[in-house]
Amino acid sequence: xxxxxxxxxxxxxxxKIIHNKxxxxxxxxxxxxxxxxxxxxxxxLDGYNVTVPYKAEVIKYLDxxxxxxxxxxxxxxxxxxxxxxYGYNTDYYGFMNxxxxxxxxxxxxNDKTALVFGTGATSKTAEYALETLGAKVFxxxxxxxxxxxxxxxxxxxxxxxxxxxxxxxxxxxxxxSPVDVKKFKAVKAVFDMTYNPLLTKFMYDAWQRYGDTxxxxxxxxxxxxxAVYAEELFDLPDPPEKTNxxxxxxxKAEEEIKNIRKDILNITLIGMxxxxxxxxxxxxxxxxxxxxxxxxxxxxxxxxxxxxxxxxSGETEKFRKVEEEILKxxxxxxxxxxxxxxxxxxxxxxxxxxxxxxxxxxxxxDINRLDLRGRxxxxxxxxxxxxxxxxxxxxxxxADYTADxxxxxEITVREIIKAYEIFSAExx
Length: 428
Prior knowledge:
Elements: E1 2-7, H1 15-21, E2 25-30, H2 36-42, E3 47-50, E4 64-65, H3 67-72, E5 77-81, E6 84-88, H4 90-104, E7 113-117, H5 121-132, E8 136-140, H6 151-155, E9 161-164, E10 189-192, H7 201-210, E11 215-217, H8 220-235, H9 250-264, E12 266-270, H10 277-288, E13 291-294, H11 295-303, H12 307-312, H13 316-332, E14 336-339, H14 350-355, E15 358-364, H15 381-398, E16 401-404, H16 409-426
Parallel strand pairs: 1-2, 1-3, 4-6, 7-8, 7-9, 9-10, 10-11, 12-14, 12-15, 13-14, 15-16
Antiparallel strand pairs: 3-5, 5-6
Helix pairs in contact: 4-5, 4-8, 8-9, 9-16, 10-16, 11-13
């Protein structure tokens, strides 16, 4: 049997990876809008998932629509049996499981103000699920009565739950958010239905504003949960007219989420020059089977000069701009070990680039043990102390884990791997 994902732009999608791992013959089908109707009527697929921009459009071509999907106005899973097409909304189950996990962690939805950004099919699914849990839901769109201009005055002090149901911030255009999250004053939780990158700009801005007090969830959980429910439908010989029989293999979903996160996550190393980031990075890449990238080496490739040469020649600002572009490029990619320059954390924009797809490790080494050879900004211990004083809080701010590298480097590497595995599992 053949299955797949139908959409318009699918280069960011993990769906093929997920369903193939589950043992399905599953592929991606990018379908132009003028060919969509023909594809639906002539496809030889036994079932398929539907994504942007066709979740509402597909409804008109179906023979049966489950009541919940009809109420939401969105179908993302279609089963083909006996020449008939049956439509369901497994996104609802996926997002509801995400919300229930948040509730289990202490998030109260009942009678709380939830603000959903976007007016498409994904937004309608989020609205329906939030209302099911008792939230007071308001939807903002670019041209709606509640829009991206007046939303701050209307809900800036009351919105406790924010949901991005737009594609804004999705790979490869990762550095954008539909709104300025920092203008909301009472946020307890932020949900982004985007799953690539793992930490969107929408979520990052909330973290910048609220720190670890805000609950952050991306769309990866939703994606995998809905896939598990979709596969229950794929496996049925005769599609049911009710989906309340779906059980959802949550343990299977959570194990897959953990595995995907490990496959996706970069490990980005920050810390003082001479702290051992490159040595540790290369060893991590070797042990974990990830590609290694060094921003200082990339600076040399792009400019023909090392960072030290650029600084000595008075081109420090050029160096920092090139370094920022490198981090912007490296950060949106996946499954890498990235060693950064010691001053990368000083440029505000770099914070997002460093964290968006990464487990960030601060490599900490005593000042008197730093290798200061060839370091124009810290040629001696005293200057290194001064430099460290400027950067210490930034290293600590961006780090998910601090690794002491004062003794055996191999031990440090093993401790980082252990922390990385815990981090991957805890975020499922």
